Amino acid sequence: MYSVNYHRATSVADAAKKIKSGDAKYLSGGMTLIPAMKTRLAAPSDLVDLNHIADLKGIKVSGKSITIGAATTHFDVANDEKLKKVCPALSHLASHIGDPAVRHRGTIGGSVANNDPAADYPSALLALGATVVTNKRQIAADKFFKGLFETALKDDEIVTAVTFTAPAKSGYAKFPNPASRYAMTGVFVTKGKDGVRAAVTGAGDDGVFRSKEIEAALTKKFEASALEGVTVPSGSLMGDIHATPEYRANLVVVMAKRAVAAANA
Amino acid sequence: MSEVSLVVNGRKVSGAVEDRTLLVHFLREHLGLTGTHVGCDTSQCGACVVHVDGKATKSCTMLAIQASGSTVTTIEGLANGADLHPVQAAFKEHHGLQCGFCTPGMIMTATDMIRRHPEGLDETTVRAELEGNICRCTGYHNIVKAILAASKTMSKASKSKAKKAA
Protein backbone atom coordinates (compact mmCIF):
# COMPACT_ATOMS: atom_id res chain seq x y z
CA MET A 1 0.00 0.00 0.00
CA TYR A 2 1.26 3.47 -0.82
CA SER A 3 1.51 6.00 1.95
CA VAL A 4 -1.77 7.62 2.95
CA ASN A 5 -3.02 10.20 5.45
CA TYR A 6 -5.95 9.15 7.60
CA HIS A 7 -8.62 11.53 8.88
CA ARG A 8 -11.50 10.57 11.12
CA ALA A 9 -14.65 12.58 10.41
CA THR A 10 -16.92 13.48 13.30
CA SER A 11 -19.89 14.61 11.22
CA VAL A 12 -21.03 14.67 7.60
CA ALA A 13 -20.11 18.37 7.38
CA ASP A 14 -16.68 17.61 8.84
CA ALA A 15 -16.17 14.82 6.28
CA ALA A 16 -17.19 17.11 3.42
CA LYS A 17 -14.56 19.60 4.61
CA LYS A 18 -11.81 16.98 5.08
CA ILE A 19 -12.30 15.47 1.62
CA LYS A 20 -10.83 18.62 0.10
CA SER A 21 -7.29 17.64 1.14
CA GLY A 22 -5.27 16.21 -1.74
CA ASP A 23 -6.61 13.29 -3.73
CA ALA A 24 -8.80 12.08 -0.89
CA LYS A 25 -11.32 9.25 -0.77
CA TYR A 26 -14.08 8.47 1.68
CA LEU A 27 -13.54 5.30 3.69
CA SER A 28 -16.56 3.42 4.97
CA GLY A 29 -16.24 -0.27 5.89
CA GLY A 30 -13.11 -0.52 3.77
CA MET A 31 -13.88 -4.04 2.58
CA THR A 32 -13.23 -3.04 -1.03
CA LEU A 33 -11.13 0.09 -0.68
CA ILE A 34 -8.46 -1.33 1.66
CA PRO A 35 -7.82 -4.42 -0.54
CA ALA A 36 -7.75 -2.12 -3.59
CA MET A 37 -5.15 0.06 -1.86
CA LYS A 38 -3.10 -2.98 -0.86
CA THR A 39 -2.87 -4.06 -4.48
CA ARG A 40 -2.28 -0.42 -5.49
CA LEU A 41 -5.36 -0.40 -7.71
CA ALA A 42 -6.38 2.59 -5.61
CA ALA A 43 -3.88 5.07 -4.22
CA PRO A 44 -5.66 7.99 -2.54
CA SER A 45 -3.43 10.51 -0.79
CA ASP A 46 -5.91 10.85 2.07
CA LEU A 47 -8.70 8.81 3.61
CA VAL A 48 -11.70 10.35 5.33
CA ASP A 49 -13.21 7.73 7.66
CA LEU A 50 -17.01 7.94 7.82
CA ASN A 51 -17.39 5.13 10.34
CA HIS A 52 -17.58 7.25 13.43
CA ILE A 53 -20.46 9.47 12.31
CA ALA A 54 -23.44 8.37 14.40
CA ASP A 55 -25.97 10.03 12.03
CA LEU A 56 -24.99 7.62 9.27
CA LYS A 57 -25.83 4.47 11.21
CA GLY A 58 -29.07 2.67 11.83
CA ILE A 59 -32.27 1.41 10.21
CA LYS A 60 -35.62 3.16 10.53
CA VAL A 61 -38.80 1.32 9.61
CA SER A 62 -42.02 3.28 9.71
CA GLY A 63 -44.86 1.30 8.21
CA LYS A 64 -43.61 0.36 4.76
CA SER A 65 -41.18 3.23 4.57
CA ILE A 66 -37.57 2.29 5.22
CA THR A 67 -34.43 4.38 5.74
CA ILE A 68 -31.04 2.72 6.09
CA GLY A 69 -28.11 4.88 7.16
CA ALA A 70 -25.15 4.67 4.79
CA ALA A 71 -22.71 3.39 7.43
CA THR A 72 -25.04 0.57 8.47
CA THR A 73 -23.20 -2.74 8.15
CA HIS A 74 -24.37 -5.72 6.14
CA PHE A 75 -24.55 -7.58 9.45
CA ASP A 76 -27.06 -5.06 10.81
CA VAL A 77 -29.16 -5.07 7.63
CA ALA A 78 -29.19 -8.88 7.75
CA ASN A 79 -30.30 -9.02 11.37
CA ASP A 80 -32.68 -6.07 11.87
CA GLU A 81 -35.94 -7.61 13.10
CA LYS A 82 -38.20 -4.81 11.85
CA LEU A 83 -36.61 -4.79 8.40
CA LYS A 84 -36.82 -8.58 8.20
CA LYS A 85 -40.59 -8.29 8.69
CA VAL A 86 -41.28 -5.72 5.95
CA CYS A 87 -38.55 -6.55 3.43
CA PRO A 88 -36.99 -9.94 4.20
CA ALA A 89 -35.42 -10.14 0.72
CA LEU A 90 -33.05 -7.27 1.54
CA SER A 91 -32.00 -8.87 4.83
CA HIS A 92 -31.49 -12.15 2.99
CA LEU A 93 -29.32 -10.39 0.41
CA ALA A 94 -27.20 -8.74 3.12
CA SER A 95 -26.76 -12.06 4.93
CA HIS A 96 -25.04 -13.51 1.85
CA ILE A 97 -22.52 -10.75 1.12
CA GLY A 98 -18.92 -11.90 1.59
CA ASP A 99 -18.44 -13.73 4.89
CA PRO A 100 -19.32 -12.96 8.53
CA ALA A 101 -16.20 -10.85 9.16
CA VAL A 102 -16.78 -8.85 5.98
CA ARG A 103 -20.43 -8.30 6.94
CA HIS A 104 -19.34 -6.93 10.31
CA ARG A 105 -17.56 -4.04 8.61
CA GLY A 106 -18.85 -3.59 5.07
CA THR A 107 -21.59 -0.99 4.69
CA ILE A 108 -24.53 -0.40 2.37
CA GLY A 109 -23.38 3.14 1.57
CA GLY A 110 -19.90 1.96 0.68
CA SER A 111 -21.23 -0.79 -1.56
CA VAL A 112 -23.63 1.53 -3.35
CA ALA A 113 -21.05 4.29 -3.85
CA ASN A 114 -18.50 1.79 -5.18
CA ASN A 115 -21.02 0.19 -7.59
CA ASP A 116 -19.02 -2.94 -8.25
CA PRO A 117 -20.67 -4.65 -11.24
CA ALA A 118 -20.94 -7.86 -9.19
CA ALA A 119 -22.05 -6.31 -5.87
CA ASP A 120 -25.43 -7.36 -4.49
CA TYR A 121 -26.94 -4.09 -3.24
CA PRO A 122 -27.17 -2.22 -6.57
CA SER A 123 -29.64 -4.81 -7.86
CA ALA A 124 -31.77 -4.42 -4.74
CA LEU A 125 -31.82 -0.63 -4.97
CA LEU A 126 -32.74 -0.70 -8.64
CA ALA A 127 -35.51 -3.29 -8.18
CA LEU A 128 -36.87 -1.57 -5.08
CA GLY A 129 -36.96 1.79 -6.87
CA ALA A 130 -34.93 3.12 -3.95
CA THR A 131 -33.61 6.62 -3.48
CA VAL A 132 -29.97 7.32 -2.63
CA VAL A 133 -29.76 10.26 -0.22
CA THR A 134 -26.55 12.27 -0.18
CA ASN A 135 -25.38 15.32 1.74
CA LYS A 136 -26.48 17.40 -1.28
CA ARG A 137 -29.55 15.79 -2.88
CA GLN A 138 -31.69 12.74 -3.43
CA ILE A 139 -30.98 10.54 -6.43
CA ALA A 140 -33.32 7.85 -7.78
CA ALA A 141 -31.58 4.47 -8.13
CA ASP A 142 -32.55 4.51 -11.84
CA LYS A 143 -30.31 7.56 -12.29
CA PHE A 144 -27.65 6.66 -9.74
CA PHE A 145 -25.89 3.63 -11.23
CA LYS A 146 -23.96 4.72 -14.31
CA GLY A 147 -21.85 1.73 -15.33
CA LEU A 148 -18.82 -0.14 -14.03
CA PHE A 149 -17.83 1.46 -10.71
CA GLU A 150 -19.51 4.66 -11.94
CA THR A 151 -22.30 6.50 -10.14
CA ALA A 152 -23.98 9.89 -10.29
CA LEU A 153 -22.00 10.95 -7.20
CA LYS A 154 -19.74 13.97 -7.43
CA ASP A 155 -16.21 13.46 -6.04
CA ASP A 156 -16.91 15.15 -2.71
CA GLU A 157 -20.50 13.94 -2.32
CA ILE A 158 -21.35 11.59 0.56
CA VAL A 159 -24.07 8.94 0.50
CA THR A 160 -25.89 9.42 3.80
CA ALA A 161 -28.79 6.97 3.47
CA VAL A 162 -30.84 4.72 1.25
CA THR A 163 -34.64 5.01 1.38
CA PHE A 164 -37.41 2.97 -0.19
CA THR A 165 -40.95 1.78 0.25
CA ALA A 166 -41.16 -1.94 0.92
CA PRO A 167 -43.00 -3.63 -1.97
CA ALA A 168 -45.71 -6.23 -1.38
CA LYS A 169 -43.33 -8.91 -2.60
CA SER A 170 -39.60 -9.12 -3.16
CA GLY A 171 -37.00 -11.84 -3.58
CA TYR A 172 -33.30 -12.19 -4.35
CA ALA A 173 -31.27 -15.10 -5.66
CA LYS A 174 -27.64 -15.17 -6.64
CA PHE A 175 -25.22 -17.61 -8.16
CA PRO A 176 -22.00 -16.79 -6.33
CA ASN A 177 -18.60 -17.13 -7.92
CA PRO A 178 -17.13 -20.20 -6.22
CA ALA A 179 -13.94 -18.35 -5.25
CA SER A 180 -14.80 -14.70 -4.63
CA ARG A 181 -18.46 -15.27 -3.67
CA TYR A 182 -19.39 -12.15 -5.63
CA ALA A 183 -22.50 -12.63 -7.75
CA MET A 184 -21.76 -14.25 -11.09
CA THR A 185 -25.41 -13.41 -11.61
CA GLY A 186 -27.85 -12.10 -9.03
CA VAL A 187 -31.47 -11.14 -9.64
CA PHE A 188 -33.67 -9.05 -7.37
CA VAL A 189 -37.39 -9.03 -8.20
CA THR A 190 -40.15 -6.92 -6.69
CA LYS A 191 -43.88 -6.59 -7.11
CA GLY A 192 -45.21 -3.34 -5.75
CA LYS A 193 -47.88 -0.78 -6.51
CA ASP A 194 -45.93 0.43 -9.55
CA GLY A 195 -45.68 -3.06 -10.99
CA VAL A 196 -42.90 -5.57 -11.36
CA ARG A 197 -39.21 -4.72 -11.44
CA ALA A 198 -36.32 -7.14 -11.96
CA ALA A 199 -32.72 -6.00 -11.63
CA VAL A 200 -29.65 -8.05 -12.51
CA THR A 201 -26.16 -7.76 -11.03
CA GLY A 202 -22.95 -9.62 -11.85
CA ALA A 203 -23.92 -10.21 -15.46
CA GLY A 204 -24.15 -6.91 -17.34
CA ASP A 205 -21.01 -5.64 -19.09
CA ASP A 206 -22.04 -2.14 -18.04
CA GLY A 207 -23.03 -3.01 -14.47
CA VAL A 208 -26.44 -3.48 -12.91
CA PHE A 209 -29.48 -3.33 -15.23
CA ARG A 210 -33.21 -4.03 -15.36
CA SER A 211 -34.25 -6.97 -17.53
CA LYS A 212 -37.28 -6.04 -19.59
CA GLU A 213 -37.78 -9.66 -20.70
CA ILE A 214 -38.03 -10.86 -17.10
CA GLU A 215 -40.23 -7.92 -16.11
CA ALA A 216 -42.62 -8.48 -19.03
CA ALA A 217 -43.04 -12.16 -18.22
CA LEU A 218 -43.52 -11.56 -14.50
CA THR A 219 -46.00 -8.74 -15.12
CA LYS A 220 -48.29 -11.29 -16.76
CA LYS A 221 -47.95 -13.68 -13.88
CA PHE A 222 -45.65 -13.23 -10.87
CA GLU A 223 -44.61 -16.86 -10.68
CA ALA A 224 -41.54 -18.88 -11.61
CA SER A 225 -43.58 -20.79 -14.19
CA ALA A 226 -44.11 -17.52 -16.10
CA LEU A 227 -40.38 -17.58 -16.91
CA GLU A 228 -40.45 -20.98 -18.63
CA GLY A 229 -39.03 -20.51 -22.12
CA VAL A 230 -38.15 -16.85 -21.54
CA THR A 231 -34.72 -15.89 -22.85
CA VAL A 232 -32.65 -12.77 -22.32
CA PRO A 233 -30.18 -11.50 -24.92
CA SER A 234 -26.51 -12.18 -24.17
CA GLY A 235 -25.14 -9.36 -26.35
CA SER A 236 -24.45 -6.95 -23.49
CA LEU A 237 -23.52 -9.51 -20.84
CA MET A 238 -20.07 -10.13 -19.34
CA GLY A 239 -17.91 -13.04 -20.38
CA ASP A 240 -14.87 -14.21 -18.43
CA ILE A 241 -13.06 -17.40 -17.43
CA HIS A 242 -15.95 -18.31 -15.15
CA ALA A 243 -18.87 -17.95 -17.54
CA THR A 244 -19.62 -16.92 -21.09
CA PRO A 245 -22.26 -14.26 -21.84
CA GLU A 246 -24.59 -17.06 -23.02
CA TYR A 247 -24.11 -18.94 -19.74
CA ARG A 248 -24.89 -15.77 -17.79
CA ALA A 249 -27.98 -15.11 -19.95
CA ASN A 250 -29.29 -18.49 -18.87
CA LEU A 251 -28.33 -17.80 -15.25
CA VAL A 252 -30.39 -14.59 -15.32
CA VAL A 253 -33.54 -16.60 -16.03
CA VAL A 254 -32.66 -19.32 -13.51
CA MET A 255 -31.89 -16.83 -10.76
CA ALA A 256 -35.05 -14.85 -11.61
CA LYS A 257 -37.11 -18.03 -11.15
CA ARG A 258 -35.52 -18.65 -7.75
CA ALA A 259 -35.99 -15.03 -6.73
CA VAL A 260 -39.70 -15.12 -7.63
CA ALA A 261 -40.14 -18.40 -5.77
CA ALA A 262 -38.50 -16.79 -2.73
CA ALA A 263 -40.72 -13.71 -3.07
CA ASN A 264 -43.85 -15.87 -3.13
CA ALA A 265 -42.77 -18.17 -0.30
CA MET B 1 2.62 8.90 11.25
CA SER B 2 -0.17 8.87 13.78
CA GLU B 3 -0.58 7.82 17.35
CA VAL B 4 -2.90 4.88 17.81
CA SER B 5 -4.16 3.73 21.15
CA LEU B 6 -6.37 0.76 21.79
CA VAL B 7 -7.08 -1.95 24.30
CA VAL B 8 -5.66 -5.31 23.24
CA ASN B 9 -6.47 -8.37 25.33
CA GLY B 10 -7.36 -6.15 28.24
CA ARG B 11 -4.15 -4.14 28.08
CA LYS B 12 -3.99 -0.49 27.04
CA VAL B 13 -1.47 -0.11 24.24
CA SER B 14 -0.36 2.74 22.04
CA GLY B 15 2.22 3.46 19.44
CA ALA B 16 3.18 5.72 16.58
CA VAL B 17 2.49 4.03 13.25
CA GLU B 18 2.29 4.99 9.62
CA ASP B 19 -1.35 5.56 8.66
CA ARG B 20 -1.09 2.74 6.12
CA THR B 21 -0.13 0.18 8.79
CA LEU B 22 -2.61 -2.67 8.83
CA LEU B 23 -4.06 -3.77 12.14
CA VAL B 24 -2.52 -7.22 11.72
CA HIS B 25 0.96 -5.73 11.31
CA PHE B 26 0.47 -3.52 14.34
CA LEU B 27 -0.50 -6.58 16.39
CA ARG B 28 2.32 -8.76 15.11
CA GLU B 29 5.19 -6.34 14.67
CA HIS B 30 4.54 -3.61 17.21
CA LEU B 31 2.96 -5.68 19.96
CA GLY B 32 4.68 -9.00 19.21
CA LEU B 33 1.33 -10.82 19.17
CA THR B 34 2.25 -13.24 16.40
CA GLY B 35 -0.64 -15.60 17.05
CA THR B 36 -2.66 -13.65 14.51
CA HIS B 37 -1.51 -14.85 11.09
CA VAL B 38 -1.35 -13.37 7.63
CA GLY B 39 -2.38 -16.05 5.17
CA CYS B 40 -3.65 -14.73 1.87
CA ASP B 41 -3.42 -10.99 2.58
CA THR B 42 -6.46 -10.55 0.29
CA SER B 43 -9.33 -10.85 2.82
CA GLN B 44 -10.20 -14.37 1.75
CA CYS B 45 -8.59 -16.83 4.16
CA GLY B 46 -9.44 -15.57 7.64
CA ALA B 47 -6.12 -16.52 9.31
CA CYS B 48 -5.99 -12.92 10.56
CA VAL B 49 -9.41 -12.82 12.24
CA VAL B 50 -9.48 -10.97 15.58
CA HIS B 51 -12.37 -9.42 17.47
CA VAL B 52 -12.70 -5.65 17.17
CA ASP B 53 -15.22 -4.31 19.68
CA GLY B 54 -16.49 -7.84 20.06
CA LYS B 55 -16.97 -8.63 16.38
CA ALA B 56 -14.93 -10.97 14.18
CA THR B 57 -12.88 -8.80 11.83
CA LYS B 58 -10.19 -9.52 9.26
CA SER B 59 -7.24 -7.60 10.66
CA CYS B 60 -5.46 -7.63 7.28
CA THR B 61 -8.30 -5.52 5.87
CA MET B 62 -8.36 -2.77 8.47
CA LEU B 63 -5.85 -0.06 9.22
CA ALA B 64 -4.47 0.04 12.75
CA ILE B 65 -5.56 3.65 12.96
CA GLN B 66 -9.14 2.72 12.07
CA ALA B 67 -9.11 0.58 15.21
CA SER B 68 -7.77 3.38 17.39
CA GLY B 69 -10.06 3.69 20.41
CA SER B 70 -11.36 0.16 19.96
CA THR B 71 -11.06 -2.96 22.06
CA VAL B 72 -9.34 -5.85 20.33
CA THR B 73 -9.12 -9.50 21.34
CA THR B 74 -6.60 -11.78 19.66
CA ILE B 75 -6.01 -15.51 20.02
CA GLU B 76 -3.57 -14.72 22.84
CA GLY B 77 -6.38 -13.13 24.83
CA LEU B 78 -8.79 -16.05 24.86
CA ALA B 79 -7.36 -18.45 27.44
CA ASN B 80 -7.76 -17.76 31.13
CA GLY B 81 -4.20 -18.26 32.35
CA ALA B 82 -3.35 -21.93 31.87
CA ASP B 83 -6.99 -22.84 31.23
CA LEU B 84 -7.83 -23.02 27.55
CA HIS B 85 -10.95 -21.25 26.30
CA PRO B 86 -13.71 -23.85 25.61
CA VAL B 87 -13.24 -23.36 21.85
CA GLN B 88 -9.47 -23.93 22.14
CA ALA B 89 -10.10 -26.99 24.31
CA ALA B 90 -12.56 -28.37 21.76
CA PHE B 91 -10.08 -27.88 18.89
CA LYS B 92 -7.50 -29.81 20.94
CA GLU B 93 -9.94 -32.55 21.92
CA HIS B 94 -11.34 -33.06 18.40
CA HIS B 95 -8.05 -32.54 16.58
CA GLY B 96 -9.44 -29.48 14.81
CA LEU B 97 -6.05 -28.60 13.35
CA GLN B 98 -3.42 -30.12 11.13
CA CYS B 99 -0.63 -27.70 10.27
CA GLY B 100 -2.22 -25.14 12.59
CA PHE B 101 -1.71 -22.08 10.42
CA CYS B 102 -5.41 -21.26 10.05
CA THR B 103 -6.24 -22.23 13.64
CA PRO B 104 -6.06 -18.81 15.35
CA GLY B 105 -8.47 -17.37 12.76
CA MET B 106 -10.69 -20.43 12.92
CA ILE B 107 -10.93 -20.18 16.69
CA MET B 108 -11.63 -16.43 16.68
CA THR B 109 -14.31 -16.94 14.02
CA ALA B 110 -15.77 -19.88 15.95
CA THR B 111 -15.92 -17.90 19.19
CA ASP B 112 -17.76 -15.08 17.42
CA MET B 113 -20.08 -17.58 15.71
CA ILE B 114 -21.00 -19.27 19.00
CA ARG B 115 -21.64 -15.89 20.62
CA ARG B 116 -24.04 -14.96 17.81
CA HIS B 117 -25.87 -18.29 18.01
CA PRO B 118 -26.71 -18.77 21.69
CA GLU B 119 -29.57 -21.03 20.58
CA GLY B 120 -27.00 -23.56 19.40
CA LEU B 121 -25.43 -24.51 16.06
CA ASP B 122 -25.91 -27.23 13.50
CA GLU B 123 -23.43 -28.50 10.93
CA THR B 124 -24.97 -26.58 8.02
CA THR B 125 -24.81 -23.30 9.91
CA VAL B 126 -21.21 -23.88 11.01
CA ARG B 127 -20.11 -24.69 7.47
CA ALA B 128 -21.90 -21.62 6.07
CA GLU B 129 -20.42 -19.41 8.79
CA LEU B 130 -16.91 -20.67 7.96
CA GLU B 131 -17.23 -19.12 4.50
CA GLY B 132 -14.44 -16.67 5.23
CA ASN B 133 -11.94 -19.07 6.78
CA ILE B 134 -9.84 -21.34 4.64
CA CYS B 135 -7.87 -24.36 5.89
CA ARG B 136 -5.12 -25.23 3.44
CA CYS B 137 -4.92 -28.76 4.89
CA THR B 138 -8.66 -29.04 4.12
CA GLY B 139 -9.22 -30.27 7.66
CA TYR B 140 -12.73 -28.88 7.87
CA HIS B 141 -14.37 -32.03 9.17
CA ASN B 142 -12.77 -31.89 12.60
CA ILE B 143 -12.93 -28.10 12.72
CA VAL B 144 -16.71 -28.32 12.33
CA LYS B 145 -16.84 -31.08 14.94
CA ALA B 146 -14.82 -28.97 17.38
CA ILE B 147 -17.03 -25.92 16.90
CA LEU B 148 -20.22 -27.94 17.42
CA ALA B 149 -18.75 -29.46 20.58
CA ALA B 150 -17.62 -26.08 21.92
CA SER B 151 -21.02 -24.59 21.21
CA LYS B 152 -22.63 -27.34 23.33
CA THR B 153 -20.15 -26.93 26.18
CA MET B 154 -20.57 -23.17 26.21
CA SER B 155 -24.36 -23.23 26.15
CA LYS B 156 -24.34 -25.75 29.03
CA ALA B 157 -21.94 -23.54 30.96
CA SER B 158 -24.03 -20.42 30.41
CA LYS B 159 -27.20 -22.30 31.43
CA SER B 160 -25.66 -23.53 34.69
CA LYS B 161 -24.37 -20.02 35.35
CA ALA B 162 -27.87 -18.64 34.76
CA LYS B 163 -29.24 -21.28 37.17
CA LYS B 164 -26.73 -20.30 39.83
CA ALA B 165 -27.59 -16.64 39.37
CA ALA B 166 -31.30 -17.42 39.75
Topology readout:
The complex is a heterodimer of chains A (265) and B (166).
Chain A: E1 5-8, H1 12-18, E2 24-27, H2 33-38, E3 46-49, E4 59-62, E5 65-69, H3 74-79, H4 81-86, H5 88-94, H6 100-105, H7 108-114, H8 121-128, E6 131-134, E7 138-140, H9 141-144, E8 145-147, E9 150-151, E10 159-165, E11 169-176, E12 183-192, E13 195-201, E14 209-210, H10 212-220, H11 245-264
Parallel strand pairs in A: 1-3, 2-3
Antiparallel strand pairs in A: 4-5, 5-10, 6-7, 6-10, 8-9, 11-12, 12-13, 13-14
Chain B: E1 2-8, E2 11-17, H1 23-30, E3 49-52, E4 55-58, E5 71-73, H2 86-93, H3 103-116, H4 123-129, H5 140-165
Parallel strand pairs in B: 1-5
Antiparallel strand pairs in B: 1-2, 3-4, 3-5
Helix pairs in contact in B: 2-5, 3-5
Structural write-up:
In chain A, 53% of the residues are buried. With 265 residues, chain A is α+β, with helices and mostly antiparallel strands. Chain A is 32% helix and 25% strand. In chain A, strand 11 (169-176) and strand 12 form a beta hairpin. Chain A has three domains: 5-49, Uridine Diphospho-n-acetylenolpyruvylglucosamine Reductase, domain 2 (2-Layer Sandwich), CATH 3.30.43; 54-165, Uridine Diphospho-n-acetylenolpyruvylglucosamine Reductase, domain 3 (2-Layer Sandwich), CATH 3.30.465.10; 169-264, CO dehydrogenase flavoprotein, C-terminal domain (Enolase-like, domain 1, 2-Layer Sandwich), CATH 3.30.390. In chain A, the strands form four sheets. Chain A has a five-stranded antiparallel beta sheet. A four-stranded antiparallel beta sheet of chain A has the order 11-12-13-14, with helices on both faces. In chain A, strands 1-3-2 form a three-stranded parallel beta sheet, with no helix packed on it. Chain B has 166 residues and is of the alpha+beta class. Chain B has helices spanning 23-30, 86-93, 103-116, 123-129, 140-165; strands at residues 2-8, 11-17, 49-52, 55-58, 71-73. In chain B, strands 2-1-5-3-4 form a five-stranded mixed beta sheet, with helices on both faces. In chain B, a hairpin with a 2-residue loop joins strand 1 and strand 2. In chain B, helix 3 packs across helix 5 (140-165). Chain A binds chain B through residues 1-6, 27, 30-31, 34-35, 37-39, 47, 49, 51, 75, 98-102, 104-105, 179-181, and chain B through 2, 18-20, 22, 41-44, 46, 49, 55-58, 61-63, 65-66, 109, 112-113, 129, 131-133.
